[in-house]
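ARCHIVE CARD
CATEGORY: sequence design from structure
SOURCE FIELD: tokenized fold
FIELD CONTENT:
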């Protein structure tokens, strides 16, 4: 047995390559037990399992949370032989903020390991591998189709797709196994699991590309779970555990969220067994979700409803708040809409505007969207019709994320009073340093709203900017002092935002 390791950065991925003959193994996937212990510069220990990669090759992957010299030991057991190895590698300092965590004081906020705000907004898409090859195709910037062929549309390659959405500020990707995507297994059976080698490598390529382009990964283990009503059968639950162990070993170093299943149910004991086991072997303590959402279960960390609706855009903020408040009432857990989009058709002339209002309202009400992107064409029709995320929609998300950079991780929902109150709805966030507000004119999207004032409490003296969610431009800054203040809102047509931040100089906003 030979093992190789290389240098890696903090929060990067170190990989041990283990070469050993597989000719004597009846099942290479379930065969040897490979366990590595990584010891940090601060003497903290992390146990990581290995997985079969290809003929005569196994791997162990680990993402080190500390910079400096690391030690590792490895043990291989196949029922006949026991082998061991050890080594070292250096983790350079790196520049990433670390994995995603729940805010230590606000159960509805997400932060990175370094404490900075994670303003998550995600996408999911059909992962087109119909030819069975190693190249993925992605629907991209299509238009209204001609003819009746449902499969016509516009497609592009992985790098173009991910770089485009990353530049627009999308920073989360939901990879739902076997849900408009390839599956990872050939067989899940108590006699032995068999996984798909080519698809496993395709998954490797996907998560590595997602990390390269700045996406965090929200990985769904099952579209429909195995043995959902057999929690009392130890052999069947052991089958699931072996699959979970394989997935965590192979992809855990690249993932930030686990989701047990997609739009499915199981026995309560099934969730308890699988989530508890998942947590016990995950060295990174990633948050766990499931769909249909089960925030009532203590083993589930995230409330993840799905929401498809096409409403009048004048009510888009109101229905968003209603959905979020309903989800928040289920418990003190982050709310991530695991799928969000339109009903009826994925695009219409007002859908980009609805998206803008939805996403800004969600930011100000402590919830997150993963949008099911169907951008191969504009005329995809279904009850759950997903959403078209073309250039206009991406521009609106980019403006939102530019604004979100000026918000710190400690903001909470705050009070704001609008005068007159009849036409404009307002939402606010505040911390000890920052005040932010979002206003939506729910009566008129053609003529400017004039004469509006807001009464707010500014936590810290600083500079205030009015910001356009439509254009991404900001007014010149003006000084404000701390305390209760009444500000006159400049004329605006549909929506406008305010940021007051003593540490913010306006350089990251495009000032008109």
């Amino acid at each position: 047995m030979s093992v190789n390791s290389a240098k890696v950065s903090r929060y990067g991925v170190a990989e041990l390559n283990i070469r050993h003959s597989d000719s004597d193994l009846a099942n290479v996937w379930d065969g040897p037990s490979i366990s590595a212990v990584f010891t940090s510069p601060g003497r903290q220990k992390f146990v990581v399992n290995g997985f079969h990669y290809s003929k005569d090759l196994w791997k162990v992957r680990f993402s080190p949370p500390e910079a400096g010299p690391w030690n590792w030991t490895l043990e291989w057991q196949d029922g006949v032989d026991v082998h061991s190895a050890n080594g070292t590698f250096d983790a350079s300092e790196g520049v990433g903020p670390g994995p995603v965590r729940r805010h230590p004081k606000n159960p509805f906020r997400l932060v990175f390991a370094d404490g900075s705000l994670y303003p998550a907004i995600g996408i999911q898409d059909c992962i087109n591998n119909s030819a069975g090859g190693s190249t993925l195709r992605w629907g991209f910037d299509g238009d209204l189709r001609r003819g009746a062929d449902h499969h016509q549309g516009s497609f592009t390659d992985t790098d173009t797709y991910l770089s485009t959405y990353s530049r627009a500020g999308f920073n989360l990707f939901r990879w739902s196994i076997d849900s408009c995507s390839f599956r990872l297994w050939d067989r899940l059976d108590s006699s032995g699991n068999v996984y798909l080698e080519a698809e496993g490598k395709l998954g490797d390529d996907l998560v590595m590309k997602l990390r390269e382009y700045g996406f965090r990964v929200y990985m769904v283990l099952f579209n429909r779970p195995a043995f959902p009503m057999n929690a009392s059968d130890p052999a069947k639950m052991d089958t699931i555990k072996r699959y979970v162990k394989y997935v965590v070993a192979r992809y855990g170093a690249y993932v930030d969220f686990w989701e047990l299943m997609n739009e499915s149910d199981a026995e309560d004991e099934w969730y308890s067994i699988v989530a508890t086991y998942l947590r016990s072997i995950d060295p990174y303590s990633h948050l766990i979700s499931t769909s249909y959402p089960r925030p009532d279960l203590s083993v589930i960390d995230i409330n993840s409803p799905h929401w498809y609706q096409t409403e009048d855009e004048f009510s888009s903020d109101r229905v968003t708040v209603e959905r979020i408040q309903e989800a928040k009432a289920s418990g003190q857990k982050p709310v991530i809409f695991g799928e969000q989009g339109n009903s009826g058709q994925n695009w219409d002339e007002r859908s980009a505007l609805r998206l803008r209002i939805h996403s800004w309202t969600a930011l100000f009400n402590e919830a997150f969207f993963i949008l099911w992107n169907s951008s191969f064409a504009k005329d995809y029709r279904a009850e759950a019709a997903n959403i078209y995320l073309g250039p206009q929609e991406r521009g609106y998300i980019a403006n939102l994320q530019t604004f979100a950079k000026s918000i710190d991780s400690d903001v909470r929902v705050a009070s704001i009073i609008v005068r007159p109150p009849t036409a404009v709805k307002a939402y606010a966030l505040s911390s000890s340093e920052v005040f932010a507000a979002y206003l939506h004119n729910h009566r008129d999207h053609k003529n400017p709203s004039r004469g509006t004032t807001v009464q707010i409490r500014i936590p810290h003296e600083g500079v205030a900017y009015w910001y356009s969610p439509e254009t991404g431009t900001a007014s010149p800054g003006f000084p404000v002092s701390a305390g209760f203040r009444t500000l006159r809102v400049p004329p605006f047509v549909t929506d406008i935002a305010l940021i007051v931040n003593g540490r913010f100089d306006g350089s990251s906003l495009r000032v008109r």
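CARD ANNOTATION: Residues 412-511 form a domain with the Immunoglobulin-like fold (CATH 2.60.40.1180). The chain has three domains: 2-92, 116-404, 412-511.
SHELF: design records, drawer C
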